[in-house]
Every structure is written in structure tokens, then in C-alpha cells.
User: Fold these one by one.
Assistant:
Number 1:
Amino acid sequence: MGIAGTDVAKNASDIILTDDNFTSIVKACMWGRNVYDSISKFLQFQLTVNVVAVMLCFIGSCAHGASPLRAVPMLWVNLIMDTFASLALATEPPTKDLLDRQPYGRTKPLISRTMLKNIIGHGFYQLIIMLVILFYGQTLFDLKLASYEDDNPTVHGTILFNTFVWMQIFNEINSRKCHGERNVVKGIFNNYIFIGVIVGTTAAQIILIEFGGHAFATTGLSWQQWLICVGIGAGELIWGQIVATIPKSVIPNGMRLGTQPFTQAEANQARMLWMRSLKRVQHQIRVANAFKRAGHERHRRLSLLAEDSEIRRASMNKSKTSLNKSVDNARAGDSNNIADSNV
């Protein structure tokens, strides 16, 4: 307890309730799990974008001699998956649903099998779509083969870049859930920052495509091409439901990334440290109790001395008063005798 607790108890405790309210423990657990989930969501989204972008640039460079995604569009993609994604996914408010599942263990891997399944599944979808547009886009959209060795913007390259960004926008919605939940839009309107990021990214992407020009290596698209790009991106939501039906058991346990279980030697060392700390705390408590008893004894003695001094002072005052009365009576008697003799 932060208010009623003693200093010894505060120093020996792991958690201090500053307001002495036990409901704060529930709120702390809720916010702690929410922070953990926010980190998991961001990692799931960013790893998917990184894997697809690296593979696309590598394959495109090997096939065409240059990266399909130019430098400035790549900076925009990097801004989407770093700054905007962190704002959108890390600002989800906590809900009571977080308390319905079991707590995470200290040795639980940071990237679970469910997260790894989502990363591989969505990365596979995006990479296949991008490779199809890269190698067969001129046939599907009836376009001329784009040359990626010069800086002239082409419709083929613009469709490739636009489709990639729209898939990330819709995959950002999928990344709101990282434990296999199907309803990825549940509570989406409770996070105004997420809505603002999605709307802002969409508006910025439209401006970059239509008015980017040579700076962003883009050119304007027709409404049919826009529908195709947005439709392929929206397919991420449907593909997310398909990935959710795949059991996480298809991912081996050894592929999980993060903290590994303690070894027996580490467990024994931790147990020894715990026992040593416990004995130290017990010794401090005994010392504190000894000081407390000594303080009480000293206070009791001082109280007894004060009472004794008060009794003595009262008796002395009483004796002094009686003596004064006797002296006054004696003086009064002497004065009476002198008056009688004079008479």
C-alpha cells in the first residue's frame, strides 16, 4: 500500500498501490497486456511489409536490372510501416476482453506461432500478387512493358506501387488482431487515431499517384485501374479470414521467436537469488521490529517519568499550599494575641 504501507514493506514489495485501491491491479494488468499486444501487432505488420518489400526488390532487381520500387516510393512505404503504423496500432485502447485469456509466461516467445502464421500467410499473398503484376501486368492491363532503369514514370510501375500500398493499408486493419480473431474491425471506431491514420494515408496516396509526377515516379490512373488496385488491396481482408482458419499447429514450435525457456542451471540460480533476497527481507523486518519495540519501550519509560514528575509536582504544590495556610494561621493568631494584650 502506498499510503498506509510502511517504508520497509514498500522496499520489499514488487508492486506498490499508490492509491491503496485493489482495483488498480486490474487496470494495471489490462494496460500491461494492451502494451504487449500493441508491440505484437506492430511487429506482425512491419515484418510482413519488410519481407514482401525485400523479396520484391530482390527479385525485380535480378529480373529487370533495377528495383521496381523507386527510392522515393520506398521512403513513403517506410513512413507508412514505421511512423503511421506505430501510431495506429500502438494507440488501441484496452478492453475487458484482454482479461479473458490466460496471462503470458515470462518465457513466452515474442513472436508466437499465430503471429508467424499471419506473417507468412499475408506475405505469401502480397508477394504472389506483386510478382504477377511485375511480370504479367503489361498483359493483364494491356500496357507497355515498363523500364525500371530510367526515371520516367510509367503506368505499370504506378499500378505496382499503388497496389502494394493499398495492400498495406488493408493489412494494417488485419494487424489489429494478432491472436487469431476473425472480427478485425471490432472496436475500430473507438480508436480515433487509427481512423485518422487510415484516412490520412488514403488521401496522401491518392495525391501522390495523381500529382506525384517525376518526384514520386508516378502517373495518373484511370478509374478502372484504381478499382483494380483498391480491390486487390481489399482482398487482404478476405485472405485474412482464410489465414485465420488455418490452425497454428502447422507452424512448428521451434519456429517461434523470442525468449526461450530457462535451463535447469538458470532456474537453480534464480531460486538461490530468490531465497537470498527473501532472507535479507526477513532480516530487515526483524531489525525494523527490534527498533520498533525499542521505540515503544522508550516511549513507555518517558511516559512513566512524565507521570511521576507530574505526581511529585502536584504533591509539592499541595504541601506548599498547606504550609502557606499554616503560616497564615500562625500569623493571624499572633496578631490576635498582641491585640488582646494591648487591651
Note: The two ends are 89 Å apart (CA to CA).
Number 2:
Amino acid sequence: MFPDVMRPFSSQYRAYSVSMLPGNERQDVNDGGKIIMPPSALDQLTRLNIEYPIMFKLTNSTISRETHCGVLEFVADEGKVYLPFWMMTNLLLEEDGLIKVESVSLPVATFSKFQPQSTDFFDITDPKAVLENELRKFACLTTGDVIAIKYNQMVYELCVVETKPGKAVCIIECDMNVEFAAPIGYEEPKRIPRVVEEDEDIVVADGMPEANRFLAFAGSGNRLDGKLSNSTKAPSVDASQGEQKRGIPNYDYKKGKLTFIRQTRSAVVAPEEEKGASFEAFAGKGKSLKQKKPSRE
């Protein structure tokens, strides 16, 4: 008869970290982003027209700091709530501090960006897959929070830099893109450009420095019978090679075109050719293999 009107849940509790929870240690509560509330909160929520999944806004009214979370269980003592340690740190709460808990409705997340608080996080083989797996323990994200995840007995802290479409989003059953910002303390590797000095020798085919010039068959040999080999002089480089030449760049180079530069040597002209001697074909003298028999007179 009367339309259902959504009435929000709002109450104040004494906040404690998970380490203060009676009984065995609950490490699963400390690793995620959900809290433990008293049974009376569940009874009150069932009487209200609350939208599911249930999410809450936690506010430290003393310093006006807030965050968002989900609920894991309703087994806490009356008047108390138990929070993960990283959540207590974000809210700047001390043990037995007052906290306001309100039910909220958050938009479904489409994008989030995280900044690792240490470069050690990128030592993980696949940090993005590890983060996505650990986010299953969270119900929502708030921009500005520093969450903590545990992997291989190590605790890594990540700051939520950005979330879309709002500053607080629900990450339950959503398709969310995840990106990373440069971690704190990360420095880009500096690239030092190589400076080519003007006096540096550029080695070319016929312009190699004498000290580094390759000499073919310039080594010494050993005999297998143990006798001393004949000492031979190693070929020496002619000192009269002229001035060393530097490589000349091809200023007409065009992209996609290869140019092969070959060095040619001028042919040595014989002294007879310099005088203008003409070439005559078949002008030589032949010899016969058969000797002529002496004629009989």
C-alpha cells in the first residue's frame, strides 16, 4: 500500500583493530577491506530498506576523515566494530576511538589507478594479476586511501590515486580497468648521450691507424718436430701511406635507399704503354711440339 522508502543506517561504535578481536587471530579480516560489526547492526539492517550489497561510510568526526568498506561478519561485541589495521591508520583512529558508520550506495567502478608506496612492489613477476586477486577481499575503494595487500609473506601498500566514475566506488562484480602510477622513490634511468670528439679517429677501409691495422699472416709458427723455425720478418706497414682519412658522411642519403661505396684504385700503367705502344692481336711467335727431321741430301 505504501511505497518502500529507503532509510539509511547510521550508528556510532567504538573502533578496534582486528588484533583486539577475541578468540583466534583473524588474518583474513586484516588483509581485506571489510569490517566486523555486532549482531544488533544486522537486526537493524533487516528492518530497513537497504540496497545490497551493503556498504558503509566510516567517518572519524574528530578530524573529518572518512573511508568506505563492506561488512564481513556480525559477530563483534555490542557497541564495538573491528577494522583492518590499514583502515585504522587512514582514519587516524586509536583503539577505543569513536567512529560513525553509515550505509551508502556507491556506483560500480570502471577505472582505478594505484601508486605503490615502494619500488619493491614491481619486483613481483605479475603485479597487476596479484593486485586484481587481492582486490577480491575488498568491497569498495576510496580515492586517497592507502590500502595494504599481502603477498608471499610481504605487505605492500598502495595509494588509490584515482577512481571512476566517483571518488568512492563499488568493486563487487565489476569490469574495472587497473593502472599503475610510478612508485614513490622511482627514478627514470638516465641516458647519457655519447659525445664524439673531433679528434677521435674514424676507422675506414684504407685509413686505419697503424697501431690497430690488421696484418695478414703476421704471426709466428712452430714446428711439430720441435726444431726452431726459420725466422722470418713480419710484414711491416708502409709508413708512406699518406695522411689518414676520416669517413665522409653521405649528405644525400634518402630513407629507404641503400648506397654501397666501393673504393677503386687506379690501374698501374706500364712504362711501355706510357710511350704509346699499340696492341697487335696474334702477333706472337708459336712453337711446334714436333721437331723437324733433318733433310737428306
Note: The mean pLDDT is 80.
Number 3:
Amino acid sequence: MTTFADLNLNVTNLSDNLIDKLVENAIKLGYNELGLSVDFEFPATVPRTKEQKKKDNKPQVIVPAPKSYKIPQKIANRLDTFSRKINIFSRINIKIKPSDINTYLHHLKSKEVLAFDIIALEPLDSQALLYLCNNNFNADIITIKSGIECGLTDKHLIRPLNNAVNSLSLHFELCYSPSISSSTERRDFIMAGRCLTFNTKSKGLLISSGASSSINLRGPYELLNLAKLFDITDQDSHQIVRRNSHQVLANSFCRKHTSSGMVYLNDSSDLIRLKTALLIYREKLNKEKV
């Protein structure tokens, strides 16, 4: 039975004490996999003269390092009594503007970005969303902050959305924390959820909190009821809340730790085991041919 996960706890400008409170409350609500997210935005492009282009004075892009976090000892002791294991993942949330398409997107494949466990891209309009759905940048999640600005109701986005889910193994994420305090955000959240469930057949959608305060956190069973607002079945709501997040973690693990998603070697002894397994398989094939 798969556990629940919240892959978007925003800790961009939080102190260590506030991060501890946020993680502790998420654990109390029943989440076993947590993603600590750091927001990042490329610098604004400024028109340059011919002399500046000759000097090649491009603005420097400094990507923040992954957030290293260790669960406090008090919480760890409490978890040991219940034999409960908590996994913490680092995540970067990169905002993509239309002006970034021809200038900064090559940085998405840099070592600094690939060092994160989860890579999330947040398009700010429909042009950026369309470009991200048709190109592979080794990302795991596309975060939809506003369904209206991203143009999810447009019919020309149906095929790119399906292409992103089926061909690029991307998942679309909706964050519920802004919709708690605003009726406008609430309507936009429901509209975006209905559009994405209809266009992707509930395969590539997940719900996260996007919260930077424990007040905006909700339990996983509340999210199961929330997903029913998208006019879907109970099976599809479990797919969105429970299973899709684990699929994201599996894809990110393959991207970061395996060779083309095929082979993962933990230590040198695994190589010997792989060799013996291949020899046994070869002998079995030879026997079948005879």
C-alpha cells in the first residue's frame, strides 16, 4: 500500500525553526514523503547594444543549492516508536517566462539544477506552457499556478498536454494553499483541475500544498474529497492524491541515479550480481534454442 506524499512544501525564505514546524505538522497529518521546495526565477532580460554583445556580458545565473535538511531528534525518536519512515526530498521550482525561452532554458540541464531530487517548472502563460510540453528538459513536474493565465481552456493545448504526460512522463501539479484564502483562486483551482483531468484522463495530475505555513496544510483524506470537485471517480481521486506522486519520485530517481533509466548500481557488488544474472539468463536462452 503506497503512502501519501506532499512534494511541495515551500521553504524559500523560512528559518530552520519554521521549517521544523512545517515538516512536523505535515508528518502529523499523515505524509511520509515530503519535498522541500525552493523558488527560483531567471533574471529579467535587458536589451543590449552591439558593443555589449561583442563583449558577451551576459547576466550571471546563480542557481541556489539544494536545501539540506535533517529531521530533529525529538521527531525522529517519536517516529521510531511507531516504526515510521519519513523521506525528505529537495526540490527546485523554476518560474518560466516567455522571454526565458530563447535565453535561459539551456540552464535547466546544468549540474546545479540536476543536483535537486525533483525539478519543477512553472510556466507563467500559455506560450511558456506550450513550449515546455513539446520539449524535454529533464523535468519531473509542471506546476500550474493559474489555469486562466496558462490558457488551459484552449483546445489547442489538448494534444501538447497528452504529449507531455505520455511521451515525456511529466506530471502537472496544482497547489491548493492559495485557494484556501481566496474565492477567485478557488474557482481557478477547480477549473484547472477539471481541464487537466479531462485532457490527461487523470494520469498526469497531482495535488500538492505549496504551503509555507502549517496553517495552509490539509490532510491527505481531505484532498481525496477535494479531488472529487474535478468530477472524477474514487479510483481516479486515489490516482491523483496517492499514486501519481510516487510515480514522480520514481521518475526523478531514474533521472538522477540510473543510466537512461535502465541500470542502477548501488555498490561494486551489484555489478557482480548483474554479471551472474546475465550469464544465467544467457544459459537459459541457449537451452530454449536447443
Note: Strands lie at 4-10, 31-41, 87-96, 118-123, 141-144, 171-175, 205-208.
